[in-house]
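The data are quoted verbatim for reference:
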Amino acid sequence: MSQEQHLKVRSNQIIEMLCDCMSVSAAEAERPNIIKLINQGKTDQEIYQAIAWD
């Protein structure tokens, strides 16, 4: 799997997690932030907490 595909799959998984606590459109709007945090080496749980609890 390419790096681009991996980012897409992982960001989609995190967005699905975020839909439990926010709207789909709000979660989708966080995609650039999610990708930035992935690139910083954050875990899915750290990303979820950073966005959901912000």
About this structure: The radius of gyration is 10 Å. The chain has a mean pLDDT of 94. The chain is about 75% helix and 0% strand. The helical segments are 3-18, 24-29, 31-39, 44-52.
